[in-house]
Design brief:
about 200 residues, Spore Coat Polysaccharide Biosynthesis Protein SpsA, Chain A, 8 helices, about 20% strand, Glyco_trans_2-like, Glycosyltransferase_2, Nucleotide-diphossugar_trans, Glycosyltransferase 2-like domain-containing protein
């Protein structure tokens, strides 16, 4: 199977090079989607060996994922953040259920979910799925499924997994340990908007 990492990035010149170098040891190709960065993210990513897709302006995380999914040939995508929080050593664990034919989507379940509002979205999405961490950005997904997804919402919290459920995907999760990159806690304003997307998906699909 051809495995490709898709890494959305916005103004991550300080960390993207190290992320690309680490991830490259676990997948066949690495694509960084530079989401309208105003710094040297694109140059540092290329310098580290990644192939780069670019947005002329900042369009958001989900749009960056769409660009990667729709423009890259692969059998399986691995997605992770550009800030170095996600340890690439878990990539084989994410890929194994897909390569073994047991799953279409594998979520990397974090032990610590930083934002309270994200925990609330997890609870709401849990009305339709037993996945404990629906907002993680660390995942492996069969490319045929990824290319079907509309990726609705303002972030992937809850909605990514719910859309995969609606498409009939087999979903599992594996535990991952994040590294010590400081993450905001409390409440994110976009999660208020995301609440209504999730609610709509639960009611109307």
């Amino acid at each position: 199977m051809k495995t490709v990492a898709v890494v959305p990035a916005y103004d991550e010149e300080d960390r993207i090079g190290d992320v690309v170098k680490e991830v490259s040891g676990f997948v066949d190709r690495v694509f960084v989607v530079d989401d309208g960065s105003t710094d040297g993210t694109m140059e540092y990513a290329r310098g580290a060996g990644a192939e780069v897709l670019t947005h002329g302006e900042n369009r958001g995380y989900l749009e960056a994922l769409k660009t990667g999914f729709q423009n890259v040939d692969a059998d399986v995508f691995v997605t992770l953040d550009a800030d170095g929080e996600m340890n690439p050593r878990y990539i084989p664990d994410l890929l194994e259920p897909i390569i073994g034919g047991e799953a279409d989507l594998v979520m990397g379940a974090r032990r610590d979910i930083p934002r309270f509002s994200e925990k609330i979205l997890n609870s709401i999405a849990g009305l339709k799925t037993d996945i404990s961490d629906t907002g993680t950005g660390y995942r492996a997904i069969r490319a045929s499924l990824a290319k079907e997804m509309e990726l609705r919402g303002v972030c992937p919290c809850g909605s990514f997994v719910l859309e995969a459920v609606d498409l009939g995907a087999d979903i599992v999760e594996v535990p991952v340990m994040n590294r010590g990159v400081e993450k905001p806690r409390g409440v994110a304003w976009k999660h208020f908007i995301q609440f209504f997307y999730i609610l709509k998906m639960l009611i109307f699909g």
